[in-house]
Amino acid sequence: MDEGSSSQNVKIWIGNLDTKVTEYQLLKIVEKFGQISAYDFLYNINDRGARSPRGYAFVTFESAKCAAEAIQQLHKKKILSREILVRYATAKLDPTQRISEKNIPAALKAGSKRELSDTEKLRKIRELEAKLKVMENSNDEIKVKAGPRIKPY
Length: 153
Known about the structure:
With 153 residues, the chain is of the alpha+beta class. The protein has helices spanning 23-30, 64-74, 106-109, 118-137; strands at residues 10-15, 36-45, 51-61, 78-79, 82-83, 85-88.
C-alpha cells in the first residue's frame, strides 16, 4: 500500500471537545500526527450570526497509519476540562452495516405480535376504507381556532 496515495485518506471524528478549545488549537494538536488533507471544525450559528463550537470535529489524514496513531494517542486524553473521544469516522449510510435491519418506529410496532393472514388483512383494509367513506360523506367540518399570536422575540 502506498501511504501517499489519495485513496489512503482516512477520516477520524474527535468529540466531547470543551467549548473553549479553538479551531486553531485542535488543528495544532492533530497535525503532529501527520499530513492532514481535510479539517472540519463544526459550529452552530445563531440567528445573530454568532458562532459557537458544536463540540466535535473531523480530521482527514493522508495515511491510515497517521490516523491510527492519532486515535491511539488522543482517545480519552483530557483537553481543558473534558476527556475527548477519538475514533474512525463512519458515514451515515455505511454500506458495511446490515441494510436488512429496518428501524421501525414504536408506534408502528404497537398491537399484536402475530402476523395477519391475507384474509384478515383484506378485512381490515375494507373496514378502514368504509370508515374513510363515512368521513368523506360526513358534513361535520373540522374547525381550528387560532390562538393568540405570540411574538418569538
